[in-house]
Amino acid sequence: MKIFVDCIPLSSGGGVQVAIAFLENLRTSQGIDWQVAIPSTIVALLPIWIVQDSRTIVLAKQTAFDKFRLKYQLSALVRASHPDIVFTVFGPAYFRASVPQVVGFALPRMLQNADCRNLNPPSLVSKMADCIRRYLMNQTDHVVVETDTARNSFLARFKFSPSNVSVIRNSVNPILTRMPVDPQQASVGETFRILVPSAYYKHKNLEIVPAVAKSLRHQLGHSSFLFCLTLPHDLPAWKHMQRVASDLGVGSLVTSLGTLGLPELSQAYSQASAIFLPTLMEVSTAVYPESFYFRRPLVTSDLDFARELCGEAALFVKPTDAGQIASSIRVLMESGDLRRSLVEEGVRQLNTYPSPDEKFRQQIHVLKQIAKHRS
Question: Could you tell me which residues come within 8 angstroms of residue 337 by beta carbon, excluding any fewer than 6 positions away?
Fold first, then answer.
Protein backbone atom coordinates (compact mmCIF):
# COMPACT_ATOMS: atom_id res chain seq x y z
CA MET A 1 0.00 0.00 0.00
CA LYS A 2 1.10 3.54 -0.73
CA ILE A 3 -0.11 6.42 1.45
CA PHE A 4 0.07 10.13 0.77
CA VAL A 5 0.03 11.92 4.15
CA ASP A 6 -1.39 15.44 4.12
CA CYS A 7 -0.22 17.58 7.06
CA ILE A 8 -0.90 20.96 5.45
CA PRO A 9 -3.82 21.94 7.74
CA LEU A 10 -1.63 21.49 10.86
CA SER A 11 -0.19 24.43 12.74
CA SER A 12 0.68 23.44 16.32
CA GLY A 13 -0.31 21.41 19.34
CA GLY A 14 -1.67 17.89 19.43
CA GLY A 15 -2.26 17.64 15.70
CA VAL A 16 1.47 17.95 15.04
CA GLN A 17 2.16 15.30 17.68
CA VAL A 18 -0.28 12.89 16.02
CA ALA A 19 1.42 13.46 12.67
CA ILE A 20 4.87 12.83 14.16
CA ALA A 21 3.64 9.61 15.76
CA PHE A 22 2.14 8.37 12.49
CA LEU A 23 5.29 9.16 10.51
CA GLU A 24 7.53 7.57 13.17
CA ASN A 25 5.57 4.35 12.81
CA LEU A 26 5.56 4.54 9.00
CA ARG A 27 9.34 4.82 9.01
CA THR A 28 9.74 1.41 10.63
CA SER A 29 6.87 -0.36 8.88
CA GLN A 30 7.40 -3.01 6.25
CA GLY A 31 5.39 -3.08 3.03
CA ILE A 32 4.07 0.48 3.22
CA ASP A 33 5.27 3.11 0.77
CA TRP A 34 4.52 6.71 1.65
CA GLN A 35 5.03 10.38 0.95
CA VAL A 36 4.16 13.34 3.16
CA ALA A 37 3.43 17.03 2.54
CA ILE A 38 4.13 19.34 5.48
CA PRO A 39 3.72 23.11 5.80
CA SER A 40 6.82 25.22 6.35
CA THR A 41 5.28 26.61 9.55
CA ILE A 42 5.70 23.35 11.48
CA VAL A 43 9.19 22.37 10.31
CA ALA A 44 10.77 23.59 13.56
CA LEU A 45 8.44 21.31 15.56
CA LEU A 46 9.37 18.11 13.71
CA PRO A 47 12.19 15.62 14.30
CA ILE A 48 15.01 16.36 11.89
CA TRP A 49 14.67 13.00 10.14
CA ILE A 50 11.17 13.89 8.92
CA VAL A 51 12.31 17.18 7.43
CA GLN A 52 15.35 15.63 5.74
CA ASP A 53 13.66 12.45 4.48
CA SER A 54 13.44 12.23 0.71
CA ARG A 55 9.77 11.32 1.01
CA THR A 56 8.96 14.64 2.72
CA ILE A 57 7.73 17.60 0.69
CA VAL A 58 7.79 20.99 2.43
CA LEU A 59 5.29 23.52 1.06
CA ALA A 60 5.48 27.21 1.91
CA LYS A 61 2.57 28.28 4.11
CA GLN A 62 2.52 31.66 5.81
CA THR A 63 -1.13 32.44 6.39
CA ALA A 64 -4.35 30.47 6.93
CA PHE A 65 -5.42 31.37 3.39
CA ASP A 66 -2.42 29.50 1.97
CA LYS A 67 -4.25 26.26 2.72
CA PHE A 68 -6.62 27.12 -0.12
CA ARG A 69 -3.83 28.19 -2.46
CA LEU A 70 -1.90 24.96 -1.88
CA LYS A 71 -4.78 22.73 -2.93
CA TYR A 72 -3.62 22.83 -6.55
CA GLN A 73 -0.09 21.75 -5.60
CA LEU A 74 -1.44 19.00 -3.39
CA SER A 75 -3.72 17.68 -6.11
CA ALA A 76 -0.80 17.61 -8.55
CA LEU A 77 1.47 15.86 -6.02
CA VAL A 78 -1.14 13.17 -5.39
CA ARG A 79 -1.63 12.56 -9.11
CA ALA A 80 2.13 12.31 -9.58
CA SER A 81 2.74 9.91 -6.70
CA HIS A 82 -0.17 7.53 -7.47
CA PRO A 83 -1.01 6.60 -3.86
CA ASP A 84 -3.72 4.11 -2.92
CA ILE A 85 -5.11 6.54 -0.37
CA VAL A 86 -4.65 10.04 1.06
CA PHE A 87 -4.64 10.54 4.83
CA THR A 88 -5.18 14.10 6.05
CA VAL A 89 -4.05 13.78 9.67
CA PHE A 90 -6.48 16.44 10.88
CA GLY A 91 -8.81 18.30 8.58
CA PRO A 92 -10.69 19.56 6.96
CA ALA A 93 -8.67 18.76 3.87
CA TYR A 94 -8.40 21.79 1.60
CA PHE A 95 -8.23 19.75 -1.58
CA ARG A 96 -10.16 16.80 -3.00
CA ALA A 97 -7.89 13.91 -3.79
CA SER A 98 -8.24 11.83 -6.95
CA VAL A 99 -8.06 8.68 -4.79
CA PRO A 100 -9.92 7.71 -1.59
CA GLN A 101 -9.33 10.19 1.22
CA VAL A 102 -9.47 9.71 4.99
CA VAL A 103 -9.58 12.81 7.19
CA GLY A 104 -9.02 13.10 10.94
CA PHE A 105 -11.46 15.38 12.75
CA ALA A 106 -10.61 17.36 15.90
CA LEU A 107 -12.53 20.63 15.72
CA PRO A 108 -14.30 20.80 19.09
CA ARG A 109 -16.23 24.00 18.44
CA MET A 110 -18.15 22.26 15.65
CA LEU A 111 -19.25 19.48 18.00
CA GLN A 112 -19.74 21.44 21.20
CA ASN A 113 -22.82 20.97 23.35
CA ALA A 114 -24.89 23.76 24.91
CA ASP A 115 -22.70 23.97 28.03
CA CYS A 116 -19.56 24.52 25.95
CA ARG A 117 -21.28 27.04 23.68
CA ASN A 118 -22.28 29.08 26.72
CA LEU A 119 -18.70 29.05 27.99
CA ASN A 120 -17.17 29.90 24.64
CA PRO A 121 -19.68 31.54 22.26
CA PRO A 122 -18.37 31.66 18.67
CA SER A 123 -17.76 34.96 16.92
CA LEU A 124 -19.27 35.80 13.53
CA VAL A 125 -15.93 35.09 11.86
CA SER A 126 -15.76 31.72 13.59
CA LYS A 127 -19.26 30.87 12.41
CA MET A 128 -18.33 31.73 8.83
CA ALA A 129 -15.13 29.67 9.02
CA ASP A 130 -17.08 26.74 10.41
CA CYS A 131 -19.47 26.88 7.45
CA ILE A 132 -16.48 26.47 5.12
CA ARG A 133 -15.05 23.66 7.24
CA ARG A 134 -18.41 21.89 7.30
CA TYR A 135 -18.62 22.03 3.51
CA LEU A 136 -15.08 20.67 3.13
CA MET A 137 -15.61 17.86 5.66
CA ASN A 138 -18.68 16.72 3.79
CA GLN A 139 -16.56 16.17 0.67
CA THR A 140 -14.33 13.49 2.14
CA ASP A 141 -14.75 9.72 1.97
CA HIS A 142 -14.09 8.67 5.55
CA VAL A 143 -13.60 10.45 8.87
CA VAL A 144 -11.62 9.39 11.94
CA VAL A 145 -12.41 10.80 15.40
CA GLU A 146 -10.85 10.00 18.77
CA THR A 147 -13.80 9.24 21.07
CA ASP A 148 -17.23 7.63 20.88
CA THR A 149 -18.76 10.90 22.11
CA ALA A 150 -17.13 12.77 19.22
CA ARG A 151 -18.38 10.17 16.74
CA ASN A 152 -21.96 10.49 17.99
CA SER A 153 -21.79 14.28 17.86
CA PHE A 154 -20.22 14.22 14.40
CA LEU A 155 -22.92 11.94 13.02
CA ALA A 156 -25.60 14.20 14.49
CA ARG A 157 -24.16 17.27 12.75
CA PHE A 158 -22.77 15.97 9.45
CA LYS A 159 -24.24 14.06 6.53
CA PHE A 160 -22.26 10.87 6.99
CA SER A 161 -23.14 7.22 7.13
CA PRO A 162 -22.09 5.64 10.45
CA SER A 163 -19.96 3.18 8.49
CA ASN A 164 -17.87 6.11 7.22
CA VAL A 165 -16.84 7.39 10.67
CA SER A 166 -14.26 5.42 12.68
CA VAL A 167 -13.03 5.87 16.24
CA ILE A 168 -9.31 5.60 16.94
CA ARG A 169 -8.47 6.76 20.45
CA ASN A 170 -5.54 9.00 21.23
CA SER A 171 -2.32 7.61 22.67
CA VAL A 172 0.97 8.80 24.05
CA ASN A 173 3.39 9.77 21.29
CA PRO A 174 5.87 6.90 20.67
CA ILE A 175 8.81 9.30 21.02
CA LEU A 176 7.60 10.23 24.51
CA THR A 177 7.29 6.56 25.50
CA ARG A 178 11.01 6.19 24.87
CA MET A 179 11.77 8.93 27.40
CA PRO A 180 12.52 8.08 31.06
CA VAL A 181 9.70 8.55 33.57
CA ASP A 182 10.57 10.06 36.94
CA PRO A 183 7.76 9.26 39.42
CA GLN A 184 9.30 11.55 42.07
CA GLN A 185 6.88 14.29 43.14
CA ALA A 186 7.63 17.70 44.61
CA SER A 187 8.74 17.66 48.24
CA VAL A 188 7.46 20.01 50.91
CA GLY A 189 9.29 23.32 50.61
CA GLU A 190 10.08 22.94 46.91
CA THR A 191 8.56 25.18 44.27
CA PHE A 192 5.37 23.51 43.04
CA ARG A 193 5.63 23.66 39.25
CA ILE A 194 2.27 23.59 37.49
CA LEU A 195 2.74 22.71 33.83
CA VAL A 196 0.14 23.98 31.35
CA PRO A 197 1.18 22.04 28.20
CA SER A 198 -0.94 23.53 25.44
CA ALA A 199 -0.58 25.41 22.22
CA TYR A 200 -2.62 28.61 22.08
CA TYR A 201 -6.22 28.29 21.01
CA LYS A 202 -9.03 30.44 22.35
CA HIS A 203 -10.96 27.43 23.62
CA LYS A 204 -7.98 26.31 25.73
CA ASN A 205 -8.87 29.15 28.13
CA LEU A 206 -5.24 29.83 29.01
CA GLU A 207 -5.97 33.47 29.79
CA ILE A 208 -7.36 32.42 33.17
CA VAL A 209 -3.92 31.40 34.46
CA PRO A 210 -2.86 34.83 35.84
CA ALA A 211 -6.09 35.15 37.82
CA VAL A 212 -5.62 31.63 39.20
CA ALA A 213 -2.06 32.52 40.21
CA LYS A 214 -3.25 35.62 42.07
CA SER A 215 -5.97 33.72 43.93
CA LEU A 216 -3.63 30.84 44.77
CA ARG A 217 -1.01 33.17 46.24
CA HIS A 218 -3.70 34.86 48.33
CA GLN A 219 -5.02 31.51 49.61
CA LEU A 220 -1.57 30.08 50.37
CA GLY A 221 -0.05 33.22 51.82
CA HIS A 222 3.18 32.48 49.95
CA SER A 223 4.54 32.18 46.40
CA SER A 224 6.21 28.77 46.32
CA PHE A 225 4.59 27.80 43.03
CA LEU A 226 5.06 28.54 39.35
CA PHE A 227 2.73 28.18 36.36
CA CYS A 228 4.71 27.05 33.30
CA LEU A 229 2.98 27.49 29.94
CA THR A 230 4.35 26.28 26.59
CA LEU A 231 3.67 29.27 24.35
CA PRO A 232 6.06 31.03 21.95
CA HIS A 233 7.62 34.03 23.67
CA ASP A 234 6.73 36.31 20.75
CA LEU A 235 3.07 35.24 20.65
CA PRO A 236 0.78 38.27 21.15
CA ALA A 237 -1.54 36.25 23.40
CA TRP A 238 1.38 35.32 25.66
CA LYS A 239 2.60 38.92 25.83
CA HIS A 240 -0.93 39.94 26.82
CA MET A 241 -0.97 37.29 29.56
CA GLN A 242 2.37 38.58 30.81
CA ARG A 243 0.95 42.11 31.08
CA VAL A 244 -2.14 40.86 32.91
CA ALA A 245 -0.02 38.79 35.30
CA SER A 246 2.21 41.80 35.97
CA ASP A 247 -0.81 44.03 36.61
CA LEU A 248 -2.14 41.43 39.06
CA GLY A 249 1.21 41.33 40.86
CA VAL A 250 1.99 37.73 39.87
CA GLY A 251 4.31 38.30 36.92
CA SER A 252 7.04 36.16 38.53
CA LEU A 253 4.60 33.29 39.09
CA VAL A 254 3.54 32.83 35.45
CA THR A 255 6.15 31.95 32.84
CA SER A 256 6.41 30.26 29.46
CA LEU A 257 8.89 27.57 28.50
CA GLY A 258 8.41 28.41 24.84
CA THR A 259 7.37 25.99 22.12
CA LEU A 260 8.73 22.57 23.07
CA GLY A 261 9.86 19.68 20.93
CA LEU A 262 9.03 16.20 22.22
CA PRO A 263 12.30 15.67 24.15
CA GLU A 264 11.87 19.06 25.84
CA LEU A 265 8.21 18.30 26.53
CA SER A 266 9.24 15.08 28.25
CA GLN A 267 11.62 17.03 30.46
CA ALA A 268 8.90 19.57 31.27
CA TYR A 269 6.57 16.79 32.42
CA SER A 270 9.33 15.27 34.53
CA GLN A 271 10.04 18.61 36.21
CA ALA A 272 6.36 19.35 36.86
CA SER A 273 4.58 18.83 40.16
CA ALA A 274 1.15 18.84 38.54
CA ILE A 275 -0.54 19.37 35.17
CA PHE A 276 -3.26 21.96 34.57
CA LEU A 277 -5.51 22.24 31.50
CA PRO A 278 -8.44 24.70 31.86
CA THR A 279 -9.85 23.94 28.41
CA LEU A 280 -13.45 24.76 27.56
CA MET A 281 -13.90 22.09 24.90
CA GLU A 282 -12.06 19.19 23.31
CA VAL A 283 -12.56 16.37 20.87
CA SER A 284 -9.58 14.74 22.56
CA THR A 285 -6.26 15.90 23.96
CA ALA A 286 -2.86 14.24 24.35
CA VAL A 287 -2.36 16.13 27.64
CA TYR A 288 -4.52 13.64 29.54
CA PRO A 289 -2.73 10.38 28.62
CA GLU A 290 0.64 12.17 28.78
CA SER A 291 -0.11 13.26 32.36
CA PHE A 292 -0.99 9.68 33.25
CA TYR A 293 2.11 8.31 31.51
CA PHE A 294 4.49 10.70 33.27
CA ARG A 295 2.83 10.03 36.66
CA ARG A 296 1.73 13.59 37.30
CA PRO A 297 -1.54 14.60 39.01
CA LEU A 298 -3.94 16.33 36.64
CA VAL A 299 -6.27 19.29 37.22
CA THR A 300 -8.73 19.94 34.41
CA SER A 301 -12.20 21.15 33.48
CA ASP A 302 -15.32 19.56 34.92
CA LEU A 303 -16.95 19.01 31.53
CA ASP A 304 -18.29 15.89 29.82
CA PHE A 305 -15.34 15.29 27.49
CA ALA A 306 -12.86 15.46 30.39
CA ARG A 307 -14.90 13.07 32.50
CA GLU A 308 -15.01 10.60 29.61
CA LEU A 309 -11.28 10.80 28.92
CA CYS A 310 -10.03 10.97 32.52
CA GLY A 311 -12.43 8.82 34.53
CA GLU A 312 -11.45 9.31 38.18
CA ALA A 313 -7.86 10.27 37.31
CA ALA A 314 -8.19 14.06 37.55
CA LEU A 315 -9.16 16.80 39.93
CA PHE A 316 -12.07 18.48 38.14
CA VAL A 317 -12.67 22.23 38.38
CA LYS A 318 -15.00 24.83 36.94
CA PRO A 319 -12.78 26.22 34.16
CA THR A 320 -14.07 29.80 34.42
CA ASP A 321 -13.81 30.16 38.22
CA ALA A 322 -10.26 31.24 39.09
CA GLY A 323 -10.92 31.13 42.82
CA GLN A 324 -12.30 27.60 42.76
CA ILE A 325 -9.44 26.42 40.54
CA ALA A 326 -6.95 27.96 42.96
CA SER A 327 -8.67 26.24 45.91
CA SER A 328 -8.40 22.86 44.20
CA ILE A 329 -4.73 23.38 43.34
CA ARG A 330 -4.06 24.48 46.94
CA VAL A 331 -5.63 21.25 48.25
CA LEU A 332 -3.50 19.29 45.77
CA MET A 333 -0.35 21.10 46.88
CA GLU A 334 -1.07 20.40 50.54
CA SER A 335 -2.04 16.74 50.19
CA GLY A 336 0.56 14.22 49.16
CA ASP A 337 -2.05 11.48 49.55
CA LEU A 338 -4.33 13.18 47.01
CA ARG A 339 -1.46 13.55 44.55
CA ARG A 340 -0.51 9.88 44.93
CA SER A 341 -4.15 8.79 44.57
CA LEU A 342 -4.59 10.75 41.32
CA VAL A 343 -1.35 9.33 39.92
CA GLU A 344 -2.47 5.76 40.73
CA GLU A 345 -5.83 6.38 39.06
CA GLY A 346 -3.98 7.88 36.08
CA VAL A 347 -1.94 4.73 35.61
CA ARG A 348 -5.16 2.70 35.58
CA GLN A 349 -6.86 5.14 33.21
CA LEU A 350 -3.91 4.99 30.81
CA ASN A 351 -4.74 1.32 30.26
CA THR A 352 -7.98 2.41 28.56
CA TYR A 353 -5.94 4.17 25.87
CA PRO A 354 -4.27 2.23 23.04
CA SER A 355 -0.51 1.91 23.00
CA PRO A 356 1.26 3.80 20.19
CA ASP A 357 1.68 0.51 18.29
CA GLU A 358 -1.99 -0.39 18.73
CA LYS A 359 -3.12 3.02 17.53
CA PHE A 360 -0.93 2.76 14.42
CA ARG A 361 -2.32 -0.70 13.62
CA GLN A 362 -5.83 0.71 13.88
CA GLN A 363 -4.94 3.62 11.59
CA ILE A 364 -3.42 1.34 8.95
CA HIS A 365 -6.40 -1.02 9.16
CA VAL A 366 -8.84 1.83 8.45
CA LEU A 367 -6.71 3.14 5.57
CA LYS A 368 -6.40 -0.31 3.98
CA GLN A 369 -10.13 -0.96 4.29
CA ILE A 370 -11.09 2.35 2.67
CA ALA A 371 -8.52 1.96 -0.10
CA LYS A 372 -9.78 -1.56 -0.82
CA HIS A 373 -13.46 -0.68 -0.82
CA ARG A 374 -13.08 2.44 -2.96
CA SER A 375 -10.67 0.99 -5.53
Answer: none
